[in-house]
Amino acid sequence: MLLIAVVGLGIALVAAVRSALANFWTTAVPVPTGVSRIGTLSMRLVDPHRYDPYHAHGVKRELMVRFWYPGAISRECRLAEYASPKVWAHVSQISGFPLPRVRTNSCLEAPITAGAHPVIIFSHGYTGMFTDSTFLFEDLASRGYVVASVAHSYETTAVVFPDGKLIESVFGSYLKGDTMRLDDGSLRLARAVRLGDLQFVLDELQRLNSETSPFTGKLDTSRIGVMGHSLGGEVSISSLEHEPRIRAGVLLDAVISDESSVGSGKPVLILAAGREEWSEEECSLWSHLRGVRFAVNLNGAEHFSVSDAIWLSSALPGFSVGTGTMGAAKTIAAVRNYIAVFFDANLQGEPLDPLLTGPASEYPDAIVTTQKQSLCGAVK
Question: Which run of H or of E encompasses 9?
Fold first, then answer.
């Protein structure tokens, strides 16, 4: 099972960086490639129609969502923190190693640029955090997208609310894999709660766009995409199929089960890491994708190569997340560009970029399977 393999990778990652991080205290999110500067802010959202299934006292479900967006920066930029100091300290405590200071490229609470922007909702990996792919979120924002990354409360490893309350995962954490709950019941519960979270966030996007908020009139709710890593990828394909407001989806090294392999009639990009052989569930999903579909396999990459681990670890001597022959910088560029051109075509109506039509000399480890090609033998 992919999730069990992921746990093993997480434990290995922790062990490898434990001593190295103690001596390297500053690193930076890779510079975005788009033309816009970036704003970011976090927002607490409370669902008045749903009790929190992880809370025994009838408390309404509340979420933290972090937004990245093209910023109208006309004054001095106050760079945002990568993560709350409370979260960073908690992560350091449970993983057992000190963490570096991280410099972002985003201006805290900057106003958003004029116009209505397409929106991409992100769902993190199992027990992950809503900042886990900041290198990708900042890049999409610099290209004109609004990214809304959801911290799934009580499953995310840690998140801080505006009143200073730190909420921890009840499922353990991928950063300490021996604590994680991987039984079917726990995973079913996490999936079900996440689906409700994404539906609620869709409702909130419409509200934020129509009422007084930092995003009033700036969100194009007719152009919404969804993207998720690992378990978040599985939730993304399920949301794409059942939620008419979502137009396209990207699955980042997703966990695929029998439930999610039923597919979708909407555009889907499967971005996989290091597949030597596609799983039976992935082959089934491909055969049930009835709309525009692409698959990109990054040879030699690992599960965390599509997360911030790729640049956090590459700053450390003697250790890096797997990237095949391309190395970290090219893998980062590939992840950013394949995702951006997919959303450009399917949310913005731009012509299909040649990246998604076949091999690209600049990304030799990226193996592209196009619309009419077979992913695993005969496509039914």
Answer: helix 2-21
Q: How far is CA 17 from CA 9, 86, 157, 246, 315, in A?
A: 12, 21, 19, 38, 10
User: pTM of the entire structure?
Assistant: 0.92
Written as one letter, the residue type at 128 is G
* CB neighbourhood size of 242 (10 A): 12
Buried b (16+ CB within 10 A) or exposed e, 259-293: ebbebbebbbbbbbbbbeebbebbbbbbbbbeebb
What's the CA gap between 154 and 352, in Å, rounded?
40
Q: Which fold has domain 2-369?
A: Rossmann fold (3.40.50)
Q: How far apart are CA 154 and CA 167, in angstroms?
A: 6
Locate the domains of the chain by residue range.
Answer: 2-369
Residue (of 140, 147, 125) closest to 194 by Cα position: 125
Provide the pLDDT for residue 10: 53
pLDDT (tens digit per residue) in 172-218: 999 887 889 999 999 999 999 999 999 999 999 999 999 999 999 99
